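TICKET #2291
ISSUE: user wants both folds in one file
ATTACHMENT 1:
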Amino acid sequence: MPIPFTRHELKHPRWWSLLIIGSCLGYAVTALTRLPLWGLPVVTAAWLGLAAWLGWGAPRHPASPRSFRVWSWSLVPIALWGLYIYLSESFGIVDLSAVFFHLQAGMTDHGGVSRVGAALFYTFSMAALFVSFIWLTGHDSLWRRIDPFLALVLLASNPLLYGVTQRGAAIVTDDGAWLERQYVEPMILDTPVDPPNLLFLYLESIERTYADRERFGDAYADLDAIGERGLVFEGVRQLDNTGWTMAGMIASQCGTPLMPAGLLHDRQFSPLERVVPGIDCLGDLLSEHGYRLSYLGGASTAFAGKGLFYKDHGFDTILGREDLQPRLDDPEYLNNWGLYDDSLYDFTVEEIRRLDAEADGPWGVVNLSITGHAPGGYPAQACLDRQGEFDGQDILFSVECSAWLARRLVERLEREGLLDNTLVVLASDHLTMRVSAWEELIHGERDNTFILLGPDIPVGRISRKAAMIDVFPTILEALGFTIDWHRAGLGVSLLSGEPTLAEEHGEDVINARMREETALQQRLWEGLTPQQQESQAEPQEQVLETPKDAIMERPDASRDEGLTPGQ
């Protein structure tokens, strides 16, 4: 069929439908292949040209009104692809576990107005795509015949469904207890005479990768300056199920990835009442040893179960946007998520002053910043005054702001004498998601920020193959506690000579095992998840390949054999 040139023909619903389908296809191709945006009209034009040549939507024998239908087999698969592309564009990496967890833990008060707008745009676009595709299949018998096969292809190729089916198949075919056998119950064997205080600063998405000055200039310079006075850890990678804020917090405070309670069992979409109640975390251990613990964050504590987590794990004071906004001098000085970090850090200083004045045992303060949050960050007014105008997209502007604000906070507390006998921890909660510097970030290896600063902390750098689960036991030993086997949870203290799981097995092996794991998931959510019925069959003996494997299946097995652990 010839390409139409008359205005009358171009007004035909056929061309509007094909244009919408072609535009959506072009956007999908550019989003999934990372082609420049100019690829969108190219793909759309190619689609329209092919449609004109093959006569799509205008067959020689159009469908009769009686055979016309208002549905299509491909609608659900198209919707699932739309969801995948939205998540990929929003966060860079689609993490199914994060989706499941946030559905349970709560997404109210998330403050992400820009992402809400994007979600609405995607919704309207998908609605237009549905109408256009229904029109095409209703008026073209060729597309009607291939519709069921297209639906199967779309379902089979969707990474979202691939992840679900892969995990489901693994659970059926494996015992799902490898990580559980590596898990060591956190246990403090001895305490220091004068336990230090703890200030734990989570710097939202400020990964150590930004320290590369060839790629990112001086954006990370203020954190480098702090690191020159303390101990910097290099090589702290990101395992699966640790790549969002609550997962990063749980990994670094509990020594385990966050496997959502509802993944493939009866509580899949039930609201959470507690967060990882089956394990002891940093707050549990410190509160048992007399620490007074506080959490402060600029965003709502209702989002993603943060308030539930800290309440359940030993924290006395939990302050978020709903608590701190009324205390602002200007209650309107807020970003989409909540408080800017200059305001948050002022309240953090006030809280530390209060805890220090009570002089009733050591204190611990955990603080979560917001400046570096993808996609563009939320630089505070103090940074705008210092750095100039912000274009709303340049993540390096926000990285520099976050690093400077953190350094300014530490130096302010030091000047007031509030960090005497205090361990300061600076860490990214996870690697950043999609930002303006994304192509540069993914160009090479990436690792998390992890810096220790304190009176008994040596100055230097430690480069090891590690993960955020190793932060938990490292902090315990940095505080002067003696812990069982230098381990806590799945983590190994990076101050010890013990090999980490990443060093022993590699990230790929750990991630593959995680997709099979059910036993550790049951431990995390003990009391909330349905209990597995005991099998009546005799357990089969496990065959291990080497004596070393036999020891590593249970981290304390060497002691049972009379071996001496490394110091």
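ATTACHMENT 2:
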Amino acid sequence: MKPWRPGPRVLAWLAAALATVLLPHVLHLPPWVLLLSLGGVAWYGWAALGDHRLPPAWLRAILALGAAAAVYATQHTLFGRDAGVSLLVVMAGLKLLELRSRRDAMLVIFLAYFLIVTQFLFSQEIPMAAYLFAAVFMVTGALVALNREGRSGDPWEPARIAGRLLLQALPLMLVLFLLFPRVPGPLWSLPRDAHGGQTGLSDRMEPGSISRLSQSDAVAFRVAFEGAAPPPGERYWRGPVLWSYDGRAWTPGWISSRGASGDELQPLGGAVSYTLTLEPHNQPWLLALDVPAAAPERARLTADLRLQSRRPVTERLRYRATSYTEYRAGTRLLVLERAMALRLPESGDPRTRALARELRSASSNDPDLVRRALARFREQPFVYTLTPPLLGQDPVDGFLFETRRGFCEHYAGAFVFLMRAAGIPARVVTGYLGGEANTLSDYYIVRQSDAHAWAEVWLPEQGWVRVDPTAAVAPQRVERGLQAAVAEGEPLPVFRRTDQQWLRDLRLAWDTLNSRWNAYVLGYGPELQRDFLALLGLAGLGWLGLGLAGIAGAGILVLLISLWLLRRGDGVRDPVVRSYARFCARLARAGLARETGEAPRTFAGRVAQARPDLAEPVARITSLYESLRYGPRPTEAATHELKRLVRMFRVSG
């Protein structure tokens, strides 16, 4: 039996739909995956158009097993987001090589719908959502073309029908989106690597780590203050606190996980309240204005005044917080804390250790030593740059005495090392500094390019005191942002380099739109749903009530759409039905109206009895209409012949 082969129109729609679905995966899947899948599409097109044979079953089995082995070799697993989507993409292309029936084509189309959903595992931004809506349109067009194959020669008919179907589905989609019961958390567990592409601040700081992050224009979080925002010099956003140094990198160490004891923080000024929307970064810490007064829900405040979430932040998180920008913290230093805050590697960086001894002998007390160290940064030819040179075996010595070129992690790390070598407890704090006011909306945007590192030293009767050695070298970094502190030609993000106000306004407008999308579409959870229902006067609905309301709303919409379609008349778009309706209208104007439910052949016989002169053309039109309407699928030539006969039909007398 000869296998089923689609016509050119179905093949074109199917190939275009698969290409549209696969295209976004270029951004995150290995190139060979897409090449193999598109190769299967091309192979099937060559076989279908040229009436060639498809590959035998043994070759298809080898290709499928080879593809699975290649996915395993590339991803080291067959499960998870990346491996699973790679396998689906490959199999979508190879499935075409066993396309021998209309049922197989339907399976390919349903697989394409599923592949559209998998793209949301990688991106949920507005441009991607718009693109995937276009992909749904293309796949629906392929579905229409497959089911209407041979009925019409109009190449745009699938596009028109697919467009109408999607427009009719939009109200139903909106009702289900608003009323479908929302539960806290996801309905199912995502793969372990579903959040692997999320980037942000790390809890490991080494030369170059923050400078690389500062070249990204991605949003880290947005914050809306209740009242006036603090001045730029007080907008330090506290993240990981780093205690341990191994000679190359700073890490938190075990002491950073201790819970707050209750006497660490003494406010010296007014509180600042704000709402922060944190982008997912797949790490357990939260950001807060330095320093937070208390932990938000489902988080805790550690002894080093850092906010710690119960689990990694893998979804956009919105929380309200209160902070103090003027405070005294940790005036009572525990023995273990002191030991950890003074700990250094046993050897390495001898010149820095000698400098620390020199500063200690020349200083009257610890605050005086801190001032002398900052004066050294301020007075010597240090340069603040995003492209510092590589450092050798003794990185602190190399930075302080040789290159003198570095970013904030170089200054913070070297300063803390110097303080510890001089006998002053110190630690590194990483986070963000500053933020851009969105003049089109009432919030600030803090980007990855605002990443920053500073130091904290412990002084008697003062506790932990923030010291930012970067401010001694480049004070404009604190007051005016990164772009004002680095020299021309540094690898800043594109929008950081431009002075065009209209480009800045355009970026802010786009960010405002993104913020609304994140808050009201992606963030439409149980709380927002309750607020929306309260506006409708349905605040008391539980899960059962919500489910019934959703079913009722969907049912009403389906009923309205059905009534609208019935009113328009079923088949009004069918050219065969439209031509016959025009034929019956001409006879009705001559007093020969067709009765409701009267069969075409019975009507033709009655017309022939009343008007023998019309018997022959009426019989020809009726016979052709019946064959087109109730026989095999109509051909384009026969449809045009019916149109011609009706157009030439005239009733005289």
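RESOLUTION: both attachments delivered.
EXTRA DETAIL ON ATTACHMENT 2: The chain has four domains: 8-147, 209-497, 526-568, 575-648.
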